[in-house]
């Protein structure tokens, strides 16, 4: 499974290909017991890749418990004191995106020319370095630099992991497998807020540093991508990998032929992105990432505790963050079930629509609360509304808004341009996330808190219309 992809095959390939297909029983249905075992093995490989998305989750969510910890005790592990201004607090999220902007082009190059599995392995170094620097940071400058290094590393890990999952999964379960990446992000977030609830921020960082090492060990069990092997002209090795992934009842040669036809006569260069068909797909997916960010997704993820406090939720903000994280998991589980049942497009529509309605309600509550007096008994009876709205928002966002654009980033493009296209899409997404996180405090002051929520709701309404008009379904389709 882990043969070096650069090794060359010598011999009569036609004889070997024939021997590979002798045992196929294409006219028979795969026994259900064998299918379950095969998909379980495939799931184990996918879960290794999902560790790459767990890195995304722990990195994104770190500011929520860490800033809370710093506000109570700003001592560092090396004995200095660290005090963050409001702008610097915003930068703990936004500088992550700056690093990602630098890492995304590198990810595209690595995936295309070095390979998917090796790209995932390379991502471990900056991720681990970032966490160690964060844990040992003596001042604000080192802390913020560490966040930028983390962004560089996790962007490579995220894109590599998603690409591997898409290319090794069976078509009929590919959506479910890709949906697990969002579960990984949420689990990473819960890991962070869980340990952050009991540990100071620097010990939390050391705990998070363990996960890149676990990912590195897991990558040695991953196969090389069959699509990548085909692009390198290693057809026999691609067939052998697919045979292990698809089982003896699948017509692997037909799948290989289809992949070759989709990528015939093409080269792996960036000019392919300018082809009208590819450019149109790029614009569509970039818009999905724009809607994903400007409807408030990452603001709610990164600044959960701040938003709960600002909305007047009467509970420990860290505990509230954990409760909201559980709602994210429920949404992800719903997405796993729905994405291959009703499709990616309808998941997006339902998700954005639910987000828009709930944000209008949350904005209305906050608006009334800001105008009401402190002894307003009627409003006090509805103190539960902000937390419930947050739960519904996170549930809705994780049904489609959060996971589906990441699926489209790899599903929407053929193999020969997938690495470059996905890197451009991710880079655009990171730029949008940087803008949203860095401008969060400014937008809240300018629009008011209620006005900001209504702005996010308006973006979700636009997203529904755009999705219905321009997004094409990828459910059940082979992406070459």
UniProtKB/TrEMBL annotation:
By its UniProt entry, which PROSITE patterns does this protein fall under?
Answer: MFS (PS50850)
Domain Major facilitator superfamily (MFS) profile as annotated: residue spans: 45-475
User: Where is this protein found?
Assistant: Cell membrane
Keyword annotations: Cell membrane, Membrane, Sugar transport, Transmembrane, Transmembrane helix, Transport
Q: Does the keyword Repeat apply?
A: no
Membrane topology designation: Multi-pass membrane protein
Q: Does the keyword Transmembrane apply?
A: yes
Q: Name one GO cellular component term.
A: plasma membrane
Report the transmembrane regions from the record: 43-62, 94-115, 122-146, 152-169, 176-195, 201-222, 278-301, 321-339, 346-369, 381-401, 421-440, 452-471
- An MF annotation (GO) of this entry: transmembrane transporter activity
Principal subcellular localisation of the protein: membrane
Know the name of this protein? Answer: Major facilitator superfamily (MFS) profile domain-containing protein
Q: To which species is this protein native? A: Petrolisthes manimaculis
């Amino acid at each position: 499974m882990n043969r070096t992809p650069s090794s060359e095959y010598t011999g009569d390939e036609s004889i070997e290909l024939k021997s590979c297909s002798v045992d196929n029983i294409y006219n028979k249905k795969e026994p259900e017991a064998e299918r379950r075992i095969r998909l379980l093995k495939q799931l184990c490989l996918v879960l290794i890749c999902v560790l790459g998305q767990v890195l995304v989750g722990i990195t994104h969510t770190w500011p929520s418990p860490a800033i809370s910890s710093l506000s109570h005790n700003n001592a560092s592990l090396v004995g200095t004191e660290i005090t963050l201004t409001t702008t610097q607090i915003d930068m703990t999220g936004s500088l992550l995106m700056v690093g990602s902007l630098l890492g995304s082009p590198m990810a595209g190059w690595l995936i295309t020319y070095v390979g998917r599995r090796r790209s995932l392995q390379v991502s471990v170094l900056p991720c681990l370095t970032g966490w160690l620097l964060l844990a040992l940071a003596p001042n604000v400058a080192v802390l913020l630099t560490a966040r930028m290094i983390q962004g560089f590393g996790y962007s490579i890990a995220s894109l590599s992991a998603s690409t591997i999952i898409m290319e090794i999964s069976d078509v009929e379960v590919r959506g479910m497998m890709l949906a697990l990446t969002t579960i990984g992000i949420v689990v990473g977030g819960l890991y962070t807020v869980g340990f952050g609830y009991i540990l100071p921020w620097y010990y939390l960082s050391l705990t998070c540093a363990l996960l890149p090492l676990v990912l590195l060990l897991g990558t040695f069990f991953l196969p090389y991508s069959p699509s990548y092997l085909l692009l390198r002209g290693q057809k026999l090795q691609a067939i052998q990998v697919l045979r292990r992934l698809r089982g003896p009842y699948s017509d692997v040669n037909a799948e290989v032929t289809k992949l070759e036809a989709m990528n015939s006569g093409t080269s792996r260069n960036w000019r392919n992105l300018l082809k009208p068909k590819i450019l149109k797909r790029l614009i569509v997916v970039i818009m999905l990432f724009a809607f994903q960010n400007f409807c408030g997704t990452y603001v709610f993820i990164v600044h959960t505790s701040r938003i709960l406090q600002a909305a007047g939720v009467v509970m420990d903000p860290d505990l509230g963050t954990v409760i909201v994280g559980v709602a994210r998991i429920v949404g992800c589980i719903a997405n796993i079930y729905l994405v291959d049942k009703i499709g990616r497009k309808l998941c997006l529509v339902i998700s954005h629509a639910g987000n828009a309605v709930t944000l209008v309600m949350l904005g209305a509550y906050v608006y009334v609360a800001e105008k009401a007096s402190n002894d307003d008994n009627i409003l006090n009876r509805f103190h539960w509304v902000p937390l419930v709205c947050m739960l519904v928002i996170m549930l809705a966002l994780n049904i489609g808004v959060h996971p589906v654009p990441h699926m489209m980033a790899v599903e929407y493009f053929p193999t020969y341009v997938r690495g470059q296209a996905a890197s451009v899409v991710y880079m655009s997404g990171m730029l949008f996330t940087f803008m949203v996180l860095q401008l969060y405090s400014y937008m809240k002051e300018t629009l008011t808190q209620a006005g900001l929520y209504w702005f996010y709701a308006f973006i979700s309404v636009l997203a529904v219309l755009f999705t219905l008009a321009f997004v094409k379904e990828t459910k059940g389709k082979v992406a070459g």
